[in-house]
Amino acid sequence: MIETREITKSFGNKAVLRGVSLSVQNGETLVVLGRSGCGKSVILKHLIGLIKPDSGEVFVDGEPVTGLAERELTSVRRKIGMLFQSAALFDSMSVEENLAFPLQEQGIRDLKVINERVAEALEMVDLPGEQKKAPSDLSGGMRKRVGLARTIIGKPRCILYDEPTTGLDPITSDSINHLIRRLQRRLGVTSIVVTHDMKTAFHCADRVAFLHEGRVHFFGTPDEMRASKDTEIMNFIEGHSGDTDT
Amino acid sequence: MQNILTKIGRAALAILAYIGEVAQLAMESFLSIFSMHVRWRLVMRHIVEIGARSQIVVIVTGAFTGAVFSAQLYFQLQRLGMASTVGSVTAVAMFRELGPALAGLMVAGRVGASIAAEIGTMKVTEQVDALRSIGVHPVDYLVVPRVAAMMISMPLLVAECCAFSVLSANYVALKVLGIAEAGYMRNLIFYVDLFDIYKALIKGFVFGLIIVFVACREGLRTENGAAGVGRAPTEAVVISSLAILAVNFILTFALNIIFPAS
């Protein structure tokens, strides 16, 4: 369903992506792993056209999206929802308004339908009845859940998760991991999860891509990754920096 | 010498690039307006923010400027026996130049800074990307309603600024300084014509567009977190204020061709 072919991207003099090729099949969950700053989030933003590659192509449902203008990307973006690292809730709106916004943009005007869909989305992320709260009243975990509810309310066929557990305590992270898996099963959506949290990776992934030095260093199943003898992968899984105290 | 020329050249290119970016944003916004992508509920909200809440600032500015201008003119002109022209000179100066420029500068400070800070914060907290990911063009949602609100509000604010400046000038001249009312009013009516009001409103309209496009450009280009959000409003106010002063000079000549001074 989604494919990148040899995409490269530099910011100033820094080459972040040096030819990344990935493909994600319908209904599967791909986890993209890599160290901080290695370009994981940049890949996600390429998939919905928030960033244009310097070279290479991105395909959604077999159609190239790289050359599309901002307004032409609307149909692609309605197929793909994205949960941002900071949740990116609109802070001038309540939870309810945040969730209703994508529906209103799709042209849904019936208040009854909107209210039902908002309530259903909040229930799916285990936050029933929180419609009237302001984003500033929510904890980090709740913000991510509301962000996720806003992502799924438009019924996308693919969900992109940008560091869904970063900054959360282990219990909340675990609950978000279960939520990702549950939504994937319940909605049958394709998921791409960018993270450096190994627990998230092994919990959610059907396949794993490991980014290193701007390229896909490893692509396979979680079991294949665990069994890998590659030094970079082993160091990443075990969290070894190679530094010493002295 | 070559070094200095290189620096001047780079600065000129940077200014041209900036004007190009603002012009591109303006073009996208007008295309959006003509394609009927206007969200009128947001326009109304911004009219309250930009127009209604700026009234006190421009009224106070206009009133005190008119009062001071009137007093200063009186101190000079009464020695020449021309005190009765104080009202007409004040009114002409306020309508043609000071009213639009002062209202523009005050609105740039109040509204331009607020627009740049709000959009800049949305940019660095990924809310602008979130809008785009939902399929909403940021120009449609963030820029167009503010532009429409500014196009409606700014001429009205300039009109208020000029009206209160003339009223306060009248009060100071007639009640405080004791200028004879008949001659004062005759000169005021004789020297101020409809073209002066047109000039004020047109200038206000143009200054409003400068403020809103510069502020939106600064907001949408904000980077580097809190530091960037701190810088965006300052840049918006400085750039739009300088642009208002420069464009005012050009408009003065251009409008004098269209509406020649009587």
Question: CATH homologous superfamily of chain A - what is it?
Answer: P-loop containing nucleotide triphosphate hydrolases
The count of β-strands of chain A is 10
Strand line-up of the largest beta sheet of chain A = 6-7-8-3-9-10
Mean pLDDT of chain A: 90
CATH class of chain A: Alpha Beta
Q: Please compute the radius of gyration of chain A using only Cα atoms.
A: 18 Å
How many discrete domains of chain B?
Answer: 1
Number of separate domains of chain A? 1
Spatial gap, N to C terminus of chain A: 49 Å
Given as residue ranges, the uncertain stretches of chain A (5+ residues, pLDDT < 50) are none
Count all strands of chain B and give the number.
Answer: 0
The protein's oligomeric status is: heterodimer
What is the largest interface, and how many residues per chain? A-B, 25 and 12 residues
Strand content of chain A: 15-25%
Gyration radius from CA atoms of chain B, angstroms: 21 Å
> What is the fold-level CATH name, i.e. the topology of chain A?
Rossmann fold
CATH architecture of chain A: 3-Layer(aba) Sandwich
What is the average of the pLDDT values of chain B? 93
Q: What is the molecular shape of chain B?
A: elongated
Strand coverage percent of chain B: under 5%
Could you state the order of secondary-structure elements of chain B as H and E?
Answer: HHHHHHHHH
Describe the structure.
The complex is a heterodimer of chains A (246) and B (262). Chain A is 37% helix and 25% strand. With 246 residues, chain A is of the alpha/beta class. Chain A has a single domain (2-238), classed as 3-Layer(aba) Sandwich (Rossmann fold), CATH 3.40.50.300. In chain A, the strands form two sheets. Chain A has a six-stranded mixed beta sheet, with helices on both faces. A four-stranded antiparallel beta sheet of chain A has the order 2-1-4-5, with helices on one face. Chain A is globular. The N and C termini of chain A lie far apart (49 Å). The mean pLDDT of chain B is 93. Helix content of chain B is 86%, strand content 0%. Chain B has nine helices and no strands. In chain B, helix 3 runs parallel beside helix 6. Chain B has 262 residues and is mainly alpha-helical. The A-B interface holds A 45, 48-50, 70-71, 73-75, 77-78, 80-82, 84-86, 88-91, 101-102, 105, 154 and B 122, 125-127, 129-130, 132-137.
